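In this section we walk through a basic example: taking a raw amino acid sequence and producing a predicted 3D structure, encoded as discrete structure tokens. The instruction is simple. Fold the sequence below.
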Amino acid sequence: MKIESKITEAVKAIVEELYGQQVPDKMVQLQQTRPEFEGQITLVVFPFTKMSHKAPDATAQEIGERLVEKLPDVISKFNAVKGFLNLSISSRQWISLLQEIESNPKFGFVPVTDESPLVMIEYSSPNTNKPLHLGHVRNNLLGWALAQVMEANGNKVVKTNIVNDRGIHICKSMLAWLKWGNGETPETSGKKGDHLIGDYYVAFDKHYRDEVRELVEKGMDEEQAKQEAPLIKEAHEMLVKWEQNDPEVRGLWKKMNEWVYAGFDETYKALGVSFDKIYYESETYLEGKEKVEEGLAKGFFYRREDGSVWADLTSEGLDEKLLLRSDGTSVYMTQDIGTAKLRFQDYPIDKMIYVVGNEQNYHFQVLSILLDKLGFKWGKDLVHFSYGMVELPNGKMKSREGTVVDADDLIATMIADAKELSADKVNKLEGITDEEAQEIARIVGMGALKYFILKVDARKNMLFNPEESIDFNGNTGPFIQYTYARIRSILRKWNDEITLDEKAFEVELAEKEINLIQRLQGFEAAVKQAGQDYNPSCIANYCYDLVKEYNQFYHDFSVLKEEDKAKQQVRLMLSAAVGQVVKNGMGLLGIEVPERM
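The resulting token sequence is shown next.
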């Protein structure tokens, strides 16, 4: 039983004995003792003063005395400060807790069972007309980390992706390739498929802007020029042919999409993310149209004179929402409804989480209401994991102008920088091969990138600074990884089983050692909090606080050179437990930790 649970049960019994009243668990408020007072756990006594009819100090003193009598192995002493009872927990209890944590490889995680709820998480959502960029990196890292966190909280998790593989933007890339591609392929160009197609998307935009400018110079209004430019008309004609299943257009579409998917897969692999199921908008938009027609028949939606279909959400405090255009074509909302229908058919979903930027907040507010009207049991409770935009020190990204921060370039740069910055440390490692040095650089570079993005509360906009992220000091991934590697080095040198004999339980722990065990215990709460708040940054910042505490301990106390064998055993186990929790915590974020560094 946890220390807090033992204290809670004892306090409830004491209150009943002393004051004749039964109290619920929630009335026993325990918190970490403030640093300026002696003790580790504080009981808030104020709720019991109405029962004791005594001053807070006297009530605290009375309960404290009885607690020491009831739990002599747990509580070594106490002090009362007004309505707060500060409890000093015995070293034996902390060492027992340490042993419990170290012996449980999955400490802090709730096991998944057959009865566990099923949570589906959608993330990534790329377009097949361009490669993944820095914004996608944040999305993928958040989605993956959230999936790990939800599973650690005892949920079955299905990770899904919806690929935007249809529409005018896809046709722009296709048309540009037909006009200026000369049959170029990923093989002949030496480019990843997504980069190749992205180049043609940029080329289309360049030529299109030239056409618009020429029409404006001839006296046409700019808005009209954008509609009348020959390129955009051709792209629309191609889209109509795609909708009509034209074999030539569909064949080109399929071939170019396959190039893009191969490119995406390389980037996903480098990021360390994957999916259990991928959906494609080309397959879901017709399903959405069917559901909208069904809602129309049931009176949920209405048709206007021009043939367009709308949902009136004014009674919900929103506006009217277009679902089908007058020509019968679908909008994003329709596609999301269709995707939801297919997912609901495929899986018994209990909760649906969409990892999508905060510019889509209103969209998901509407989607939730529409899905609920259409009978999806989880519609009303869908979660929009809304996150802020990523900016760079030199401003925002502009994808259509080709100035986007490409995900592959970013990954390669981070690994190269990590190799350069860690060269002094890595080259000193005994027997290190070039291959091992490259692998360490990959782990450190990717750890720096992932941690810098995930340590920030997802709801906030963030500034990504590659130089800051790869620092070996401060709140960074490499700082945490380096501490883990230091612990592994200690344990390799020990090279023996870590066990505690009876003398180890008699060791009087120093305050820093107790603080570290208490911090280890907090991993359980951090995992729970991250799941409740859908906030992976809880885990990132917990890991940083833990290694910071460990480094202070390591600075002040000997481990391998400690001559007292009992103390040495405790400190080795403390080191092993910190390493294990750091590895598990960083693992929830999708971050690897190196054995050597």
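Looking at the output, two observations stand out. Residues 166-275 form one domain. The two ends are 38 Å apart (CA to CA). In the next section we compare this with other chains.
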